[in-house]
Write a structure and sequence with these properties.
Bound molecules: 3-isopropylmalic acid
Oligomer: homodimer
Distance between the termini of chain A: 23 Å
Strand content of chain A: 15-25%
Shape of chain A: globular
Radius of gyration of chain A: 20 Å
Number of helices of chain A: 12
CATH superfamily of the largest domain in chain A: Isopropylmalate Dehydrogenase
Number of strands of chain A: 12
Structural class of chain A: alpha/beta
Chain lengths: 352, 352
């Protein structure tokens, strides 16, 4: 079982270190780790945010444990050299088409949410975001127009792309509360019309899952008004970018949430995927021991579950993380004073 | 001064009637009203949701007072005949390029917000949404692809389009707290790259306004976490659709918020525009006297301010609406039992 560890920039290395501590404590047999550079640090060392050797290492692995990318020193670089191009490159090169973003409150931490407690308590949803298509990876450029320089981007989805992610969404719903909300803008976009038609066709194969459709503006409204109504939210790359961040903000603990980006390839143990905390590189607190490693540790749990078929260990980690969060060991983000390392140690202690 | 009144479907006529009651009470000299069909009702009567005579009536007016469109009986019609095409048609035909959506809580009604009271109290923002460009009005269609049928939409902005809406945004900011947040997705979209460059150029003409840029995913997050940070939010058609609805949901009183869609043409008294409540046609409560007319009445206030140069009357209406909201006269949406007509009457009484 090969894991490529791409810790990246900012607090990425600090939080990834704690995830690896937890992995180590599990003493899984036959595990090999590789480490590679990615993001701003990779640009500085190799002239590219996603060097060929890093990409090959990721490709050869069964799973990628990803930290964070983003470095203020790279902000003035041309777009193709900026750190976030690394994550876009990994998604497309490794065909990571399915982004899973669970958003649920942690018992005892409902107060972190900006929403009223009775609304916050009800949040338990999974955003399933398509990650290889849409306006992200279509043709784009600049052209002349009567109104001067014009920037343009081609937005599209075809039936095969929608079917593939829809199956991921419906299968996830079957393991949850069996409700799927497909979000689009079918009253305006042709891309969404095809999206909706294809989702409806796939739904016929999942009669046990209840399907409804919501326009993205209404979804953004409902996510604030009554987020508890959502189970699985299935959507495209652009709307998923917006709604998954909004959902995380509703939970309130952005520093605690993990994500998976799955490909099509089967690893022998599960599905190839990349796992990362949803928080960024947080340059403002880098190197101060203030970063909360829970999201990185929960990303590791998702990795074990989806890519390595280790459901039991995944559950153990998740229970240990929840136990730690409910204890007096709290990081600065939760009003406590525990350091990154102390939180990681506590999760290890709570593993049993 | 000519006003075209397009009351539309569902509760549109009921709430528009109350706005007209308020207008009548003002006894403005030289006012002429025209009424036209729009939306589902127009489709049923004339075979099109935006009949040519309605469009001409709107074009010939100084302002359009719009109710709502949307009718469940039209849901199965092909897209070009559906009620919402009327509003898209009016926006493009009348070149209504600037959508102003104020979102602020009403004193005493903070509890309507799904956010915690300390966050809700701080919301006082204006979304300035471009309404004539972006992926809404670009070329679009269906094409064959290796993955089957593919829906596509061309997203674009040119410098002139961005400059035009940016001026609207900066001028609005000058009259408010002098802060403008431009929202885009410049790390992914060429459309956004041009957007950002053009906004930065226009900003040079408004040195008194503080400008910052935010990616749309972060904006959706911040709108929930700390909405009080926003003054003017300047954004494109698609992101504006999502963020303005999200902002309204954060305020909590969707039934109370108004909007303006301004064109370029000067009327002699102000700027030509269309004014509408942001709530929809609400077929579930139509004809029961349960609709709250405050949003329609506040839309009238915006009409008087922007299109007819009647700032004083606009302020009077806004004060009367606020006074009514703070009184015991409350509609069903606010836990009271006052009817649509009773609320309208109360606003009239509070006008002085
Ligand atoms: C960094 C950026 C390109 C990326 C995206 O838009 O997908 C990020 O916001 C995310 O959601 O992972
Ligand atoms: C009805 C729909 C086409 C419209 C839009 O997307 O602009 C609506 O959501 C709005 O915001 O006015």
């Amino acid at each position: 079982m090969k894991i490529a560890v791409l810790a990246g920039d900012g607090i990425g290395p600090e939080v990834t270190r704690e995830a690896l501590k937890v992995l180590d404590a599990l003493s899984l047999p036959g595990l090999v780790l590789f480490e590679g550079d990615v993001g701003g640090i990779a640009y500085k060392r190799h002239g590219h945010p996603l060097p060929a050797e890093t990409l090959e290492m990721a490709r050869a692995a069964d799973a990628v444990l990803f930290g964070a990318v983003g470095d203020p020193e790279c902000d003035t670089l041309p777009r193709e050299h900026r750190p976030e191009q690394a994550i876009l490159g990994l998604r497309s090169e490794l065909r990571l088409f399915a982004n899973l973003r669970p958003a649920a409150g942690f018992p005892g931490l409902e107060d972190l949410s900006p929403l009223k407690p009775e609304l916050a308590r009800g949040i338990d949803l999974l955003v399933v975001r398509e990650l290889n298509g849409d306006v992200y990876f279509g043709k784009k450029g600049e052209r002349d127009s009567a109104g001067g320089r014009e920037g343009w981007d081609d937005m599209s989805y075809n039936e095969a792309e929608v079917r593939r992610i829809a199956h991921t969404g419906f299968r996830a719903a079957q393991k949850r509360r069996k409700k799927l909300t497909s979000v689009d803008k079918a009253n305006v976009l042709e891309t969404s019309r095809i999206w909706r038609e294809a989702v409806i066709k796939v739904a016929a194969e999942y009669p046990d899952v209840e399907l409804d459709h919501m326009y993205v503006d209404n979804a953004a409204m409902q996510m604030v008004r009554s987020p508890g109504q959502f189970d699985v939210v299935l959507t495209g790359n652009l709307f998923g970018d917006i709604l998954s961040d909004q959902a995380s903000a509703c939970v309130g603990s952005i520093g605690l949430l993990a994500s998976a980006s799955l490909g099509e390839r089967q690893t022998g143990f599960g599905t190839f995927g990349l796992y990362e905390p949803i928080h960024g590189s947080a340059p403002d607190i880098t190197g101060q021991g203030k970063a909360n490693p829970i999201a990185a540790i929960l990303s590791l749990a998702m990795l074990l579950r989806h890519s390595l078929g280790r459901e039991e260990e995944a559950n153990r980690i998740e229970r240990a993380a929840a136990k730690t969060l409910a204890s007096e060991i709290r990081g600065a983000d939760l009003g406590g004073s525990a350091s990154t390392g102390e939180i990681g140690d506590a999760v290890v202690r709570n593993l049993l």
